[in-house]
Structures are given as C-alpha cells and as structure tokens.
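Data card: per-record layout.
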Amino acid sequence: MNRPDAPATAREKMLAGLPYNIMDPELIELRERARRAVYAYNRSEPMEADPPSEILKGLLGGFGAGAFVEAPFRCAYGVNTYLGEETFLNAGCVILDCARVEIGDKTLIGPAVQIYTAEHPLDPTARAAGTETARPVILGRNVWIGGGAILLPGVTLGENAVIGAGSVVTKDVPADCVAAGNPAKVIRQITEERS
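The structure for this 195-residue chain is written out next.
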C-alpha cells in the first residue's frame, strides 16, 4: 500500500533518489525543454551586455547574481541546477542534473568539467528497461574545480575545496582540502595565513 506522501510521479521519484523510468513523458518533456534552451544559449551572442542571458535564468532552478556560464554548456534538465552568486562555469561544462546540483557562491569550475547525478543499474535487464536513480551533488562556497574533472553522483565538496584537473571525484571532499587523482584523494589541507 502506498503512503499518501510517497513520491508518485517519475519526477518525484527521481528527486527522492528512488528508481524511476527515464522514458516518462514528463521527464522527456523537461529534457526537450532543456535541450532547446541550451541550444539557444550556446548560439546566443557571446558579447551580449547581460552575459547570463535570460535563457539560462529561465531554465535553471537558481541563477545567483553575477553568475556566468561560458558557452558551450550542457545540462539534462536545468531545473535541478542551482548556481550561487558569482559562480563561474568555463566552456564545455556538462551537468547531468537528474538530482539537485547546488553550486555555492564564488565557485569556479574549469573547462570540460562534468557533474553527474544519474546512476544506471548494474542489472542489464533493469538498465534496458530505462530504470535509473539519481543522487545530489553539492559544492560548497568558494570551491575550485580544475578542468576536465568529473564529479560522480552523491558527492559533496566542502567550502574552499580544490579539485585537481582531470580528477574523478567518487567520495566527499572536506572543506579546505585539495583532492586529486583517479579516484580523487585528499592530498593536502589548505592553510591560509591570517593577519
């Protein structure tokens, strides 16, 4: 018996981290909307007076003041991505935002960074049926992600964390730490001189 507050639609299940069908009509419509918006954004005038353009502001779940996304950019849904104030995404970033993706204020994301929230089942029958789950990715304030890094589903990066270029982040990275490698490992703590 279903509880009255249990997620009922594929979209609700997706956001709750439960298995959902990626071929659900509502999800297909949301992905098509995102593809159209991203296509328009990537073809927009690169030197427009208001660089973020109303296109991404209308697509993303949140677009903080002073945020900037360099084209080309790709996302799965858009509505599940939240950019903090003064965040910067360099060219070629991909965000598969089946679950919530939060990018904190003043975070810098290098070129060709990929953020994944979707997970496909290991069972080939379930995978062929279009079943998927998703886990959120959270980036704290003032994070720096080097070019070509990949963040896997469910990771959280603490404030001021730094991720080395080309790293594959499979686990959480604490605040004030540098992580690098495949899989990424914390290689040092960041210490700042305070006057």
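Known properties of this structure: The first helix runs from residue 10 to 15. The chain has four helices and 20 strands.

See the next section for split statistics.
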